[in-house]
Amino acid sequence: MAFMLKRVSLLSAIALVASTLGLPISPVQSITPGTVQIDGSSTVYPITEAVAEEFQKKGGGRATVGISGTGGGFKKFCRNEIDIADASRPILAKEMAACRAAGVQYIELPIAYDALTVVVNRQSPVNNLTTAELKKMWEPGAQGKVSRWNQVRAGLPNAPLRLYGAGPDSGTFDYFTEAIVGKPKSSRRDYTPSEDDNVLVQGVARDKNALGYFGYAYYRANTNRLKAVSINGVLPSAQTVRSGKYQPLSRPIFIYVNAKSLQRPEVKKFAEYYMNNASRLSAAVGYVALPANGYAIAKQHLQKRKVGTVFAGDAPVGLRIEALLQREAKF
């Protein structure tokens, strides 16, 4: 886990310096034979990176894992530039259309559940927020108006409210804005955005007046620096996700495998290794593993090359684990 977080920190630093200096970061131009190329969600990154490390150590082949955000990953995926897209939400209708236009077919594989976590600095007195209060601070109308904590709720500190959140190419941004504000991508813009969750971790950890949101694994790896905020009185945990109590911020996370890439032995081996070890590794990095029958269904879809999605081009909010499995079983 420590090595993985160091790699995330290095990627974050490179991205931050490049962004600051206005330097371009060269995109992947095309799929490279012999190498499994993965890109997309920073939320899913810790699981995929753990899988890739083990796969390579056991002589399975070479795998590279990037962080472009879910939306950025799907752009590359639908341009046939990568073999696998990491996604913190289901594929959207516009992405389905882009893949269809490029002749890219895909196998959708749920790999775990995430408790999307709202965090504050360890020194913050804030312990609980309601979804209504989150909406009050994140909705577009809050921009330039809700700038202090006591404007969110009477009794909170008369101190600057500094926000850190997912960037617009992030699936976390899409999910959070729909779950909290009521419409995907509907958010104030005067906050610090990043598709890399580690950048957000660093920002909140340095500022006692900050608040941010990102995947549960990044909170779990930084509990000495951050404090999770309960939402409507419920803290994020494996137990509250499984019970369905942590709503509306629990969500399934996925990988999407290019069906044509699966014809290459290294991609087939990697995808099979991923699904055989997703339960163990998703729990190890801090996410909530699916029930055993969930992975069994996903493995069947992979084996039978079941292309397409169980979703209708949108990302439903509050989908409980059992409801996801029912969709998968009927597919």
Automatic annotation (TrEMBL):
One of its GO terms (molecular function) is phosphate ion binding. It comes from the Bacteria. The keyword DNA-binding does not apply. Keywords: Phosphate transport, Signal, Transport. GO terms for biological process: phosphate ion transport. Residues 1-30 form the signal peptide. Residues 34-276 form the PBP domain. The keyword Cell membrane does not apply. InterPro entries: PBP_domain, Phos-bd, Phosphate_ABC_transporter. Belongs to the PstS family. Involved in the system for phosphate transport across the cytoplasmic membrane. This is Phosphate-binding protein. It comes from Crinalium epipsammum PCC 9333.
